[in-house]
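[recover] target loaded
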């Protein structure tokens, strides 16, 4: 007798049946097991606060027993809401962006929404592409960073009537659209701090202003503060980088090769600041006796470096949570009266001091 060369047949009918059973579980089955109406189940899912604790417990038990998951697509069709919010950040590892993301997710979860997240890498075309994908997936609203977006991004959101909030920037001329600090004023405050210590030779290791209006505002804030005192940074003392520690080190070493050397260096973000401090210490320089280095963003490492760093502190967690509440209030047509300017503050530590006496 000829044996079959094929392996043993696998009966998949049970698996298909189980999958079919899972798909067949719906609102009616949950209502039947819980002994309530489908309307009560719907209310418990969408507005649990108006359903008694006893009914919620019975419905929750039925949901657990049946393994039911509400059909988000069907609910979105009926309510025209997906209960999802998209957020596009230029980066997730820089400064306060990570802290803000956690705060947004936590606040949205509390309010009954889900966060979808994307990273644009400071590329407006990539941000536009991600926004389009989020719109295709039916997000209710969007959280963006800054005000410098691809023209088609704002056009698309206006056409589709999708509300959005710009974060990490504050614009008094457009109330209700931005949550964040006044970047110009923050760096003006930091520059004033250094000038009050007696510095006149300033330098900047600035983050690239390409597609980054916040970085541009910070650089202008420094220049404005200096101009009010009749000072200016020499062209060779303003170096532009991106956001890495390695760039901070390389640009700091380049500054120290100029003549005359600057006595105060303002860095545009936390990573550039860390790089500058590490390179200064590697070169045998004393902070702040030989040179003062200050930064922007008070991430944890700033206070744990061998020389703790003076920096601008931006409340990223507050920015994220406020932006989430603002957007949800607009979606749900509720009033919103919280302040939208998240004021930056100067945190003074050991890396800044008066200029060298021979300068």
């Amino acid at each position: 007798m000829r044996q079959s060369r094929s392996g043993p047949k696998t009966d998949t009918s049970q698996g298909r049946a189980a999958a079919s059973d899972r798909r067949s579980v719906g609102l009616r089955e949950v209502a039947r097991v819980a002994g309530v109406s489908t309307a009560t189940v719907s209310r418990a899912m969408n507005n649990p606060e108006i359903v008694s604790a006893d009914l919620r417990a019975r419905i929750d038990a039925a949901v657990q027993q049946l393994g039911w998951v509400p059909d988000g697509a069907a609910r979105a069709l009926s309510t025209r809401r997906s209960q999802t919010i998209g957020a596009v950040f230029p980066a997730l590892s820089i400064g306060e962006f990570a802290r803000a993301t956690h705060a947004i997710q936590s606040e949205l979860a509390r309010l009954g929404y889900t966060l979808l997240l994307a990273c644009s890498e400071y590329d407006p075309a990539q941000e536009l592409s991600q926004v389009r994908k989020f719109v295709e997936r039916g997000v209710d609203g969007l959280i963006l960073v800054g005000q410098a977006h691809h023209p088609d991004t704002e056009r698309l959101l206006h056409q589709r009537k999708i509300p959005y909030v710009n974060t990490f920037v504050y614009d008094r001329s457009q109330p209700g659209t931005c949550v964040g600090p006044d970047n110009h004023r923050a760096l003006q405050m930091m520059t004033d701090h250094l000038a009050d210590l007696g510095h006149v030779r300033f330098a900047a290791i600035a983050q690239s202003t390409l597609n980054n209006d916040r970085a541009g505002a910070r650089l202008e804030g420094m220049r404005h503060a200096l101009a009010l005192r009749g000072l200016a940074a020499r062209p060779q003392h303003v170096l532009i980088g991106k956001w890495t520690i390695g760039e901070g080190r390389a640009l700091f070493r380049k500054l120290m090769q100029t003549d005359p050397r600057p006595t105060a260096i303002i860095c545009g973000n936390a990573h550039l600041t860390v790089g500058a401090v590490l390179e200064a210490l590697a070169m045998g320089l004393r902070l702040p006796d030989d040179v003062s280095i200050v930064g922007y963003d008070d991430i944890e490492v700033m206070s744990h470096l061998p020389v703790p760093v003076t920096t601008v502190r931006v409340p990223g967690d507050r920015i994220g949570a406020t932006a989430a509440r603002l957007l949800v209030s607009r979606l749900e047509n509720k009033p919103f009266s919280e302040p939208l300017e998240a004021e930056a503050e100067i945190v003074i530590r050991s890396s800044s001091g008066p200029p060298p006496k021979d300068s």
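[recover] notes: The first helix runs from residue 13 to 24.
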